[in-house]
C-alpha cells in the first residue's frame, strides 16, 4: 500500500501496430502481424525487467486490448486490468483525469493508449530535467509499442504539468518469423 507522498511509477504504452485497409470501424481495428509480435515483445520486456504494475488501465479499442492481452502471453505479469472507454481518442486532459482519479494504493500504473494522446501526455507531465537522450528519442518519434516510464512523487490527484521525471523510453520489437525457402 502506498501513501500519497510515496514515489509512483507511470508507464505509458502506445498500442502495438494495427492493421489497416480492413472494412471495420477504427475502434475495432485489430493488431497487424507486426503488432502481434511486438506486443509479445512488450510482455517479454516487462518480465525481463521485473516490472509489475499494480494496475493496467487500457483503452477499449480492439488494438489496445489485444496489445495488453498478448503482452501477458509474452510474459507480462498478470495484474488488475481496467478497460476505460475514455482513453480511446483521448487528449491530455482526459488522460490526466484518468491518472488523477487513481487510488493512492496504486504505486505503479501502466496506461495503454493511443497517439497523439500518450506522447502528448509524456510531454505534459514530464519535466525536461536529466536524461536528454530519452527526450531526444521521444521528440524524434513515439512509435507503436513505445513505452515511456516516469517517476512521480506526490498524490495522484496532485499530478500536474512537469511534475514527473522521465526515467525510461523503450520500444520492444518482436522478431519476424522467417519463411522456409522451398
Largest sheet properties: 7 strands, mixed
Tell me, what is the CATH class? Alpha Beta
Provide the CATH architecture: 3-Layer(aba) Sandwich
Overall average pLDDT? 93
Corresponding CATH superfamily: Phosphoglycerate mutase-like
Output the radius of gyration: 16 Å
Helix content: 25-40%
Q: State the CATH topology.
A: Rossmann fold
Outline the low-pLDDT stretches: none
Residue fraction in strands: 15-25%
Number of strands: 7
**Ends distance:** 57 Å
Cross-sheet strand order for the largest sheet: 3-2-4-1-6-7-5
State the oligomer.
Answer: single chain
> How many helices does DSSP assign?
5
Shape designation: globular
Number of domains: 1
GO molecular function: hydrolase activity
Keywords: Hydrolase
InterPro entries: His_Pase_superF_clade-1, His_PPase_superfam, Mito_Ser/Thr_phosphatase
Enzyme class: hydrolase
Labels describing this entry:
182 residues, alpha/beta, seven-stranded mixed β-sheet, 5 helices, 7 strands
Please explain how this structure is put together:
It is globular and about 45 Å long. Strand 2, helix 2 and strand 3 form a beta-alpha-beta unit. Helix 1 crosses helix 2. A seven-stranded mixed beta sheet has the order 3-2-4-1-6-7-5. The termini are far apart. The chain is an alpha/beta fold and 182 residues long. It contains five helices and seven strands. The protein has a single domain (7-19, 26-170), classed as Rossmann fold (3-Layer(aba) Sandwich). It has helices at 33-48, 62-73, 92-100, 117-125, 132-140, and strands at residues 7-14, 55-59, 80-84, 108-113, 126-127, 147-153, 164-170.
Amino acid at each position: 500500500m502506498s501513501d500519497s507522498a510515496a514515489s509512483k511509477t507511470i508507464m505509458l504504452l502506445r498500442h502495438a501496430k494495427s492493421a489497416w485497409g480492413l472494412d471495420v470501424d477504427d475502434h475495432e481495428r485489430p493488431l497487424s502481424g507486426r503488432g502481434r509480435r511486438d506486443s509479445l515483445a512488450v510482455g517479454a520486456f516487462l518480465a525481463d525487467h521485473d516490472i509489475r504494475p499494480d494496475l493496467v488501465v487500457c483503452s477499449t479499442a480492439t488494438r489496445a486490448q489485444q496489445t495488453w492481452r498478448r503482452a501477458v502471453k509474452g510474459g507480462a505479469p498478470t495484474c488488475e486490468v481496467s478497460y476505460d472507454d475514455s482513453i480511446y481518442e483521448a487528449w491530455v486532459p482526459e488522460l490526466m483525469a484518468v491518472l488523477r482519479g487513481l487510488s493512492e494504493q496504486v504505486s505503479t500504473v501502466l496506461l495503454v493508449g493511443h497517439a497523439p494522446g500518450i506522447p502528448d501526455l509524456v510531454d505534459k507531465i514530464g519535466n525536461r530535467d536529466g536524461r536528454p537522450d530519452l527526450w531526444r528519442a521521444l521528440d524524434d518519434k513515439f512509435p507503436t509499442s513505445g513505452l515511456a516510464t516516469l517517476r512521480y512523487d506526490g498524490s495522484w490527484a496532485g499530478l500536474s504539468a512537469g511534475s514527473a521525471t522521465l526515467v525510461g523510453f523503450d520500444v520492444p520489437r518482436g522478431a519476424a518469423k522467417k519463411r522456409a525457402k522451398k
